[in-house]
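Bench log, entry 3. Co-assembly request; chain sequences pasted below exactly as received.
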Amino acid sequence: MKTYTNTGNKDTRSGFGAGLTELGKTNNNVVALCADLIGSLKMDEFKANHPERFFQVGIAEANMIGLAAGMTIGGKIPFTGTFANFSTGRVYDQIRQSVAYSDKNVKICASHAGLTLGEDGATHQILEDIGLMKMLPGMTVINTCDYNQTKAATIAIAEHHGPVYLRFGRPKVANFTPEDQTFEIGKALKLTDGDDVTIVATGHLVWEALEAAKVLQEKGISAEIINIHTIKPLDNKAILDSVSKTKCIVTAEEHNYLGGLGESVARVLSQHNPTPQEFVATNDTFGESGTPAQLMEKYGLNANAIVKATETVLKRKK
Amino acid sequence: MPNTQQLQDLTTQVRRDILRMVHKVNSGHPGGSLGCAEFFVALYQEIMDRKDSFDMNGIGEDLFFLSNGHISPVFYSVLARSGYFPIDELNTFRLINSRLQGHPTTHEGLPGVRVASGSLGQGFSVAIGAAETKKLNNDSHIIYSLHGDGELQEGQNWEGIMYAAANNVDNIISTIDLNGQQIDGATDDVLPMGSLRAKFEAFGWVVVDIEKGNNIEAILQGMAQAKSLTGKGKPVCVLLKTVMGNGVDFMMHTHAWHGKAPNDEQLAIGLAQNAETLGDY
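Structure output for the full assembly:
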């Protein structure tokens, strides 16, 4: 089995900051807006390098989304930055009318997604944002897994015309994707070849899936891991090709199972190749305060949970 | 440049368009549309420095954003009669497969529209964003926007209003259609907002009053004054006092025609009060 090396824990939000810094140098049309969370979003460097292209909007997310929509008129490419909760649920109608329905080239960049925001608790931990964003016609939805991939995705979405939701997080997690890997929107990455089960993971759960694969290998189970950084448009072919071989699948995400990656995968499978599926996701619940590791354990979102889900789905396999 | 009589003739024709459009589909918003007919005619015929052809980016020209999208009939009529799309297309208002949706949208590619509006309170933010891009592009042209007075009850407006003054967005002229009416009745009965002048001034805007908002000469004079105040570090607000339903006597001074179409008889009366000038579509 192909193995991956953690080159050192880093936060995905810093990958966003690094990508934005690079875009600042290479693309004069990129502008950045932030709602009083510059440090949390790692937008400091872009702001320092390009004060004329940086817009501090204060604690006013609805206005930030509208400003960004307006800024596209005249050719700018706005990147908005705040927490995932305030990037989506708080401003859903603004995104819907002024950005998505108006086909504006706005990049909604959301940090602190999911439970791993940690101690701030459920008011700040959104587990519904993928669902909210994927339902919007024309919206591209991306959830990156590590620092390198987040940096690459940030750079890539500037070249894509249309609204994008880019989701990343707060904690320092394994950084294992190649630094020079180009990011292709909608193109899943097969990380390991396997015959017994397909594990499709997104965001922080990708590394957990790789960890689970090692445990499964010791148990004699061969897992094919797919890093599905783009939830919409979904790489149907990568999923269908893999399950045609493995005949069962586990989906893993830091999100409610309602509306998340798992449901998107289930739709593809039910239409094209009905396949037993288990969901590693939160079970229609809000989060709570705690350390990221404690929360991922309590809510069943780690390697251990993926191993258990795999054992369950293998029993259902025909 | 058209003279005042020509502008008035166009306004009369626009009123006929509005009445006929909403009557045909028995839906739409004639009251606010009629109240703003003179403003739209003055804006598109005289005030804005705009190009004949439409492109979304609008670099090198003044731009207009309609925030209270429900007054789409007046917007569509004036856009068509200003050459953005064929006048005959007004026939398709609110019909299936039309570019003239109930509320304006870019989604169907209608020339002249730069953002969807209808869900209220979003236009300030969008217009201010466009004004920021004008500055980044070293484009000295002006952003114009129009908002309903009832619409100002939406909180997002005040986020944008606060932002624009704090950031010296002085290349924008935002007009409030002060007709004092909203769906459930008089604005002062639904949710009194006190002095809008005092509010805008407290937020750091310069305010111009146009008391006779249905008089083209008064509009031209007031908007010229507003334009002279741009570029001085502060955003500019115009309080345009209009009469809802203006030009059709039974629709005036009431909220009853906010979102109601005239029947055949009422249409005939309304059209009789506004004789054809430039030709119906």
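Chain A has two domains: 10-173, 189-316. The radius of gyration of chain A is 19 Å.
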